[in-house]
């Protein structure tokens, strides 16, 4: 691990954040490439179907991924203690847990896919395509989990670069298979899902070969894997908070999609596309926050509080600069960016509204993530988790329902007259959903800043004076 307790704070944080940013960009290219090719060669219904499927997939896998992240920490600790027998047992336990969980989730997802789409009120015109995409993707879920588990194991063994290389290879093949299956073979949306599954499968096989050839301690061999109850409980205890957070965030995304879906196919498609662009634009701020967490952790352990302050200021400046550039770029080229995914004018116009509203507040998002980075690095991880959940469930989801007019419809379904709820009689339609995003960020920033000012995070470090 690189020593961050000495040297120029800005350069250290920038150099630490850059590799993570590249990895996340390639990871997002999976979704972006799918959406661009689907939107241009199949249509807006298919584009909406791909976008509507991802919150469901995220909700299905989020808790399992959270628990598996605890397994990565267990592997890292046993590896650091040079207890290689326990490392092998931990690897086997994680693989068994992942494979069994993926099979159960595949059965549940495919069996109840119709009911899931009814719950989120997906437009009827989109459901057939969404069901094809979701079910095809779920059939390859064991491959998806296998690849991610192998990458997590490599990171636990101290190898963070190799998973990035496999991810880049998988992304390239995903593009090639997308073009082959959709443009050449005309397989439609099933081809988009197959392209992702096959490219993930190739990356998984390559990762296994690499693991077996280069690591003497750990080998992938199903015949030798044994489930260890003690190790599983250790992983479960460590990964449980992350699993809960991921699950509640996933359910929040589904709740938002339920609101969006009630406005029809055009809005669903626009939300799916603009959300892809939006997420890519906020990646730098997220990675700066993650890099700052590591920086704060090391310097808090070294009792160098002045460097923590300097690192936070440097991160705030870099994040603000990148956020302003991202906002300007997205607002200036909003039509061109939406046009990459679709030529439907209505979808483009709706997506442009989203990009103008949300893209104008990236500096709020980046500042919030910087303060959260300090808190996480200090060990106060529960605070950012609760702030995230409060921002999502107390502000963003209710504000989206209120400002879009969906809450008014709910009151009317209950038989209440408009006079009894005059504050809900106004409606901004789908733009109300877009305004709910920066409102959630504002609350998150305020709460993070107030806790930072309290100074309580300084006492959360695990290293104590002798």
User: Regions with pLDDT < 50 over 5+ consecutive residues?
Assistant: 416-426
Mean pLDDT: 86
Radius of gyration: 23 Å
**Overall SS class:** mainly alpha
Task: Compute the number of structural domains.
Answer: 2
Distance between the termini: 24 Å
Percent helix, as a range, is over 70%
Explain what this protein looks like in three dimensions:
It contains 17 helices and no strands. With 466 residues, the chain is mainly α. α10 (265-301) packs parallel to α14 (362-378) and α11 (305-332) runs antiparallel to α13. The radius of gyration is 23 Å and the shape is globular. The two termini are 24 Å apart.
Summarize the topology.
Blueprint: H1 9-41, H2 44-80, H3 84-111, H4 113-119, H5 127-139, H6 141-156, H7 161-184, H8 188-214, H9 229-261, H10 265-301, H11 305-332, H12 334-339, H13 345-359, H14 362-378, H15 382-404, H16 406-413, H17 430-454
Helix pairs in contact: 1-2, 1-7, 1-8, 1-10, 1-11, 2-3, 2-5, 2-6, 2-9, 2-10, 3-5, 3-6, 5-8, 6-8, 7-8, 9-15, 10-11, 10-13, 10-14, 11-13, 11-14, 13-17, 14-17, 15-17
Tags for this model:
466 residues, mainly alpha, 2 domains, 17 helices, 0% strand
Task: Write a brief caption for the model.
This protein has helices spanning 9-41, 44-80, 84-111, 113-119, 127-139, 141-156, 161-184, 188-214, 229-261, 265-301, 305-332, 334-339, 345-359, 362-378, 382-404, 406-413, 430-454.
């Amino acid at each position: 691990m690189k020593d961050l307790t000495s040297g120029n704070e800005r350069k250290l944080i920038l150099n630490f954040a850059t590799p993570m940013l590249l990895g996340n960009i390639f990871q997002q290219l999976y979704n972006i490439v799918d959406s661009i090719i689907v939107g241009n060669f199949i249509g807006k219904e298919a584009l909406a179907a791909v976008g509507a499927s991802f919150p469901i997939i995220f909700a299905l896998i989020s808790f399992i991924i959270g628990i598996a992240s605890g397994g990565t920490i267990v592997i890292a600790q046993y590896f650091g203690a040079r207890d290689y027998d326990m490392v092998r047992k931990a690897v086997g336990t994680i693989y068994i847990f992942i494979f069994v969980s993926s099979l159960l989730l595949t059965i549940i997802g495919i069996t109840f896919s119709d009911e899931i789409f009814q719950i989120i009120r997906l437009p009827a015109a989109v459901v057939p395509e969404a069901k094809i995409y979701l079910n095809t993707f779920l059939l390859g879920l064991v491959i998806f989990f296998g690849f991610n588990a192998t990458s997590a194991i490599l990171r636990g063994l101290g190898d963070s670069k190799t998973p990035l290389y496999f991810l880049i290879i998988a992304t390239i093949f995903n593009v090639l298979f997308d073009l082959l299956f959709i443009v050449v073979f005309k397989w439609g949306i099933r081809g988009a899902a197959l392209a992702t599954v096959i490219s993930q499968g190739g990356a998984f096989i390559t990762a296994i070969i690499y693991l077996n050839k280069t690591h003497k301690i750990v080998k992938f061999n199903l015949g030798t894997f044994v489930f260890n109850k003690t190790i599983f409980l250790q992983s479960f205890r460590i990964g449980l908070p992350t699993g809960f957070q991921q699950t509640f965030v996933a359910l929040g995304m589904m709740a938002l999609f339920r609101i969006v879906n009630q406005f029809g196919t055009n809005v669903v498609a626009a939300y799916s596309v603009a959300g892809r662009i939006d997420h890519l634009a906020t990646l730098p701020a997220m990675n700066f926050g993650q890099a700052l967490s590591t920086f704060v952790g090391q310097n808090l352990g070294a009792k160098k509080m002045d460097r923590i302050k300097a690192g936070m200021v440097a991160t705030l400046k870099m994040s603000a600069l990148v956020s302003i550039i991202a906002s300007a770029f997205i607002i200036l080229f909003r039509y061109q960016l939406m046009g990459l995914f679709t030529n439907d004018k209505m979808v483009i116009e709706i997506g442009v509204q989203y990009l103008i509203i949300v893209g104008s507040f990236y500096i709020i998002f980046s500042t919030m993530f910087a303060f959260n980075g300090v808190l996480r690095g200090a060990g106060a991880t529960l605070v950012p988790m609760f702030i995230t959940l409060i921002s999502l469930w107390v502000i963003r989801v209710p504000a989206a329902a209120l400002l879009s007019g969906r809450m008014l419809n709910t009151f009317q379904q209950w038989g209440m007259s408009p006079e009894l709820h005059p504050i809900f009689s106004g409606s901004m339609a789908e733009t109300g959903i877009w305004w709910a995003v920066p409102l959630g960020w504002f609350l998150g920033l305020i709460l993070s800043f107030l806790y930072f000012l309290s100074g309580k995070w300084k006492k959360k470090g695990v290293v104590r004076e002798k």
